[in-house]
Amino acid sequence: MKKTNAKRGAPPPGVALELKKVHPNDLFLDPTNPRLAGLDLKLEDQDGILKVLWKERAVNEVVDSIAANGYWQHEVLFATRESNGLVVIEGNRRLAAVKLLCSAELCRKIGATGVPVLSEAEQKAKKLDELPYYECPRNQIWIFYRVQAC
Predict the structure, then answer these.
(1) What are the φ and ψ backbone dihedral angles of 133, each rounded to 5 degrees?
(2) d(CA 90, CA 94)
(3) For the residues of 35-99, what is the DSSP string, one character each?
(4) Which of 11, 61, 114, 145 fits a disulfide with 6 by CB distance 3.0 to 4.6 angstroms?
(5) What are the CA-CA distances from residue 91 to residues 62, 98, 120, 143 (Å)?
(6) Cβ neighbours of residue 81 under 8 Å, at least 6 residues apart?
């Protein structure tokens, strides 16, 4: 039997989606993210979601990586348009890290310490001012995962 792994990637052949870019402030963290299972969080509680991701889901590691290397443009976020705007389905820890790197106020608000808040020039140089994303319905995110033989 062949071993397989799910791989994140571009849309599969035959699926036409436009790669878009958006400022991180125009994206919402997803309260239904599997990393937040069992918590009673709502979309409106963005600070609460961010706090849980920071304290319990190792966002500090992502912060360190992005601060040192910039945002890798091939790590595209996947978002769905819901009543309040664009909600990130895949990439919540990356989005959380970017939001923290861009806002000392947000770091203080959720108690995130040791975050090197970046100037606007540094944010632009590290490609944090516009994040790449694909928009798709929540129930179709599975089409972006390809099963490939190892």
Answers:
(1) -155, 155
(2) 9
(3) GGTT----TT-HHHHHHHHHHHS-HHHHHHHHHHH---TTS-EEEEEETTEEEEEE-HHHHHHHH
(4) 145
(5) 11, 11, 22, 16
(6) 87, 135
Q: Mean of the pLDDT values across residues 37-56?
A: 93
Q: Where are the domains of the chain?
A: 4-149
Q: For 12-21, 64-73, 117-126, which range has the lowest pLDDT when averaged over its residues? A: 12-21
CA dist 70 and 67 (Å) reads 6
Maximum CA extent, the chain: 52
Do residues 78 and 144 make contact, with C-beta atoms less than 8 angstroms apart?
Answer: yes
pTM, 2 dp: 0.85
* Region of poorest pLDDT, from 81-85, 134-138, 141-145: 141-145
Q: Which residues pair with 132 in a beta bridge?
A: 21
Amino acid in position 134: Y
